[in-house]
Amino acid sequence: MIKVCDRHRRRRRKARLAAVFRAPNVNFPFKLKSKKCTTPHRLSQPPPQPTRGPYRNNAVITSTTVLHLLTKRRTIQLLPINRHRNRNPPHPPPHPLHHPPPPPAPSSTSSPCTPTPPTPSPLRSPSPSPLPTLHIFTSPSSPTAPSPNPTCLKHQTALRLASLPHTTTNSTNHASPTGALPFLLPPTSSPLLPAALLPVGAGQILSYATKAGHPLPARPAHPKAKVYASLIDDAIRPAWLHAVYLTPANAHLPTRLYLAPATSSWLVQTYQGISLRRAASEQLKIAAPGEWWM
C-alpha cells in the first residue's frame, strides 16, 4: 500500500510539473543545490547538456532537467540569486610589463662619487715643446737627418739658413692640416693647441721665421740663380720622381722612406704605394709631357 501511494504521489507530482513547465526552455531565477541520491535512476536517456544562460552559473534550466532530477530522487533546494554580486566583476591584475618602472635609486647610496685621474694623451700625440717642431719625412731613428723628400729638404734647409731654433720629427701626410708635408708646429706648453697656435703650412714657414726674428740672410742675387731654379724644377725633379716611384728597380724605396715609418700594415703600405705611383705619374704628365720617361 505504501508503495502504491508513493507511486501515485510521484505521478501526480510529475503531472503538476509537466503542466507548469510546458515551454521547452524555462529560465528560473534561482540556483539548484542538490544532494545526489545513491539509488540508480530508471531513465534511459541522459539529461540534455545545459546551455549558457544569464544567471550565476550561466545555465538554462529546462522542464526535462527538473523531471530528470526529481526522477533520480534528488533533494532540490532553491537558492535566490544575488543579482548585484557580479554586476562589477573584478578586473584581472595588470601584467607586470605594464607597470611603470620604479624611480632609480640615488647613485650615491650604492657607489660614492670618486674623482678619477685625467686620461693621458695618446703616445703619438704632439708633446709640449718650447721650440717649433718641423714635421717632415725622415727616419724615426734619426729625425735630424736630411729628409729624402725634396720639398721637406728645402724647408729644412731654409730654417737652418735662417738660424731658427727648431726640432724635426717624423710625420705623414695624414697628420698635416693641408694634407701634405712639411708643416711647422709652434712652441706649446700644453698638448691642447689654442687658436693662435695652429700648425703653419709649407707656404707660410718662411713668413713665420721672419716674424719670429729669424729672416733669411740677405745675399746678393746670383746671375745664374734663376737658371739653377728652373733646372731643378723642370729637369731634376721629374727625373727624381721617375727614379724613385716609377723605376721597377727602386720599387722598395717608397716603402722604406715613406710608408714603413708611418705604418706596419702591409695592406696599408700596398694601397699607399699605389697612390704614390699614381700621383707621381700625374705630376710627370703635367711637368714634362712627351718626355722619354712617358
Write a brief caption for the model.
The chain is mainly alpha-helical. The chain has helices at residues 2-20, 63-71, 107-110, 150-161, 205-211, 225-246, 252-259, 266-287; strands spanning 30-35, 75-80, 133-136, 167-170, 183-185.
Q: pLDDT below 50 for ≥5 consecutive residues: which ranges?
A: 23-44, 51-60, 73-81
- How can the largest sheet be summarized? 3 strands, mixed
Percent of residues in beta strands: 5-15%
How much helical structure, as a percent, in the residues? 25-40%
Distance between the termini: 141 Å
Number of domains: 3
According to DSSP, the number of beta strands is 5
Sheet/helix structural class: mainly alpha
- The average pLDDT is 71
Verbal overview:
- This protein is mainly alpha-helical and 294 residues long.
- The chain folds into three domains: 2-80, no CATH class; 130-189 and 197-219, 3-Layer(aba) Sandwich (Glutaredoxin), CATH 3.40.30.10; 220-294, no CATH class.
- It is built from eight helices and five strands, in the order αβαβαβαββαααα.
- The strands form two sheets. It has a three-stranded mixed β-sheet with strand order 4-3-5, with helices on one face. The chain has a two-stranded antiparallel ribbon with strand order 1-2.
- α6 (225-246) packs across α8.
- It starts with a helix and ends in a 7-residue tail after the last helix.
